[in-house]
Each structure stands twice: as structure tokens, then as C-alpha cells.
Amino acid sequence: MSSAIDTHEGQEGVDEFLEKLTEKEFAILFDVISKIMISFGDFIRSFGTIERDYGEYLVILQQAADYGPVLLERFVEEAPPEILQDFMRLFIKLFVVLPKLSKMMELEPDEKIKLSEDLYELAEAFTEMRDIARAREGEEK
């Protein structure tokens, strides 16, 4: 079975396509490909570093996800009020963002940028929660 590119008609389409592209457009296309490769490379390096440095905690996160509602119910019952309020706010924001994250490639460019901003805000909020937890840990010693 031959593809359209193998046929004379397909080849003419390729020739026409290539004739329309200017050297400037080729340069821009190469730039776009380079930026995509750098972005994916940064993502993969970051995730690999997280796995290497925090692998056991990723397992704990997966276990927490497996316990789901039961763990959440227990946390709500036992967490200090100052942590609970912030955690619930974060939890709700996280559940608003997750569906968008799973369909990221279908989003419009501005929606992707907004999703990125939402993720940075969540990261900052989780960092604040970490700081609160560390401060409480210091109080308990």
C-alpha cells in the first residue's frame, strides 16, 4: 500500500508546499522545533531529577492517592484548623486544574499559558504549606 507522498500527485503537493516556504520560514520552523525540544528536555530532566531525588515520596503520594476519600476524610478529622483551611482551598484548586492538565494539548495557547500560571500558583501554595508543616514540626520538638 502506498502513501500519498509516494504518488506523483502527492509529490507535486510536497513540491508545492516546499516552494511556498521561504528561507525565513524555514529558519522559524527550525527555531520552533528547537524550542519544543528544549521544553521537552527541561520537563524530562526535571521529572527525572524529582524521581531520582524523591522517589520514595512519589511512592507515598501514589499510596495516598490509592486511599483517596478515606485518607481525605481522616485528614479533615485530624488536621489542625489552620492547615485544614489552606489544604482544602488547595485541594479544590487542584481538582479544577487536573482536568485541564489531562487535556493540555487540546487547549488553546492562551489557555495553556493560564494553566501554567495556575500550576505555578499551586506550587507556591504547596511551598507555603511545606513551610507551615516545617514550622509546626519545630514547635513540637
Tell me the layout of helices and strands.
Elements (H helix, E strand, L loop, with lengths): L7 H13 L2 H56 L2 H22 L6 H32 L1
Task: Describe this protein's structure.
- The chain has 4 helices and no strands.
- The chain is mainly α and 141 residues long.
- The chain has 2 domains: 10-68; 79-141.
- The longest helix has 56 residues, at 23-78.
- It is elongated, with a radius of gyration of 24 Å.
The 3D shape can be described as elongated
Helix content: over 70%
Q: Averaged pLDDT, please?
A: 87
Q: What is the percentage of strand-forming residues?
A: under 5%
End-to-end distance, in Å?
73 Å
Q: Any idea how many domains? A: 2
Computed Rg = 24 Å
Largest sheet: none
- SS elements, strand count: 0
Summarize the entry for a quick read:
By secondary structure, the chain is mainly α.
Which characteristics define this entry?
141 residues; mainly alpha; 2 domains; 87% helix
